[in-house]
Amino acid sequence: MATVSLDSLDLAALLCSRVCHDVISPVGAIVNGLEVMEEEGGDESMKEFALDLIRKSARQASARLQFARIAFGAAGSAGASIDLGDAEGVAKGFFSDERTQLTWNAQRMLLPKNRVKLLLNLVVIAAQGIPRGGTIDVTVEGDEQASRFVIKAQGKAARIPTHAPALVAGEADDGVVDAHAIQTYYTGLVARAAGMSVDFALDGDVVTITSSPA
């Protein structure tokens, strides 16, 4: 492992690639559904199926963009705080599928922007630890001044995502990160900016990610 050296332009480009990857599938499904709707002579059942596909995919694309706006974007001015209730809303929208069930245990309060961004990115990493789906339990302890995050992901074949501890620490093979690894690396950048540590543990079918003030 080597320390990653990534300039701001490459970081921005890789993050954009990550966001595009998240939304291209539902947007493509919307296009396919519209093409079916426009076909002449198509039966009503196919058109109704296409309309349902468009509705579902549009909601999914919107949810992923709203999540990305807070997790990766500016989401307010420098030094701004974000309501944990808003974070809960976008997280539940992002994971609104049948494979992963998200439980959010946190009182509604304002936290510094980078801490909320960190929390959302840690939830994404936790989901990568249960590739076959399962449950994710998010707990926020403490208050606005001193908060601690505990994320537990439980499911079959649970594992700590490959290279996640190293990437969060700012290290990678040959010091190189790609669009697949950029989100985990970015999580480490946000953690350091927020003054938070990140620790990983695996116990049976449960991956636990803990983040506390450094």
Task: Explain what you see.
With 214 residues, the chain is an alpha+beta fold. It has one domain (2-18, 80-213): Histidine kinase-like ATPase, C-terminal domain (Heat Shock Protein 90). It has helices spanning 8-38, 44-71, 84-94, 113-128, 164-168, 182-194; strands spanning 2-3, 81-83, 100-105, 110-112, 134-142, 147-154, 171-172, 196-203, 206-213. The chain has a five-stranded mixed beta sheet with strand order 3-5-6-9-8. The chain has a two-stranded antiparallel ribbon with strand order 1-7. It has a two-stranded antiparallel ribbon with strand order 2-4. A hairpin with a 2-residue loop joins strand 8 and strand 9. Helix 1 (8-38) packs antiparallel against helix 2 and helix 2 packs antiparallel against helix 3. The longest helix is centred in the N-terminal third of the chain and has 31 residues, at 8-38. The protein is globular and about 65 Å long. It starts with a strand and ends with a strand. The mean pLDDT is 91.
What keywords describe this structure?
214 residues; alpha+beta; Heat Shock Protein 90; five-stranded mixed β-sheet; 6 helices; globular
- Helical amount: 40-55%
What is the overall silhouette?
Answer: globular
Strand content: 15-25%
Order of helices and strands: EHHEHEEHEEHEHEE
CATH class division = Alpha Beta
Poorly predicted ranges (pLDDT <50, ≥5 residues)? none
What is the count of DSSP helices, taking H or I runs of 4+ residues?
6
Strand elements, count: 9
Q: What integer is the average pLDDT?
A: 91
- And the CATH topology? Heat Shock Protein 90
Q: How is the biggest beta sheet arranged?
A: 5 strands, mixed
The assigned structural class equals: alpha+beta
Q: What's the arrangement of strands in the largest beta sheet?
A: 3-5-6-9-8
Q: Tell me the radius of gyration.
A: 19 Å
What would CATH call the architecture?
A: 2-Layer Sandwich
Under CATH, the homologous superfamily reads Histidine kinase-like ATPase, C-terminal domain
**How far is the first residue's CA from the last residue's CA?**
23 Å
- The tally of domains stands at 1
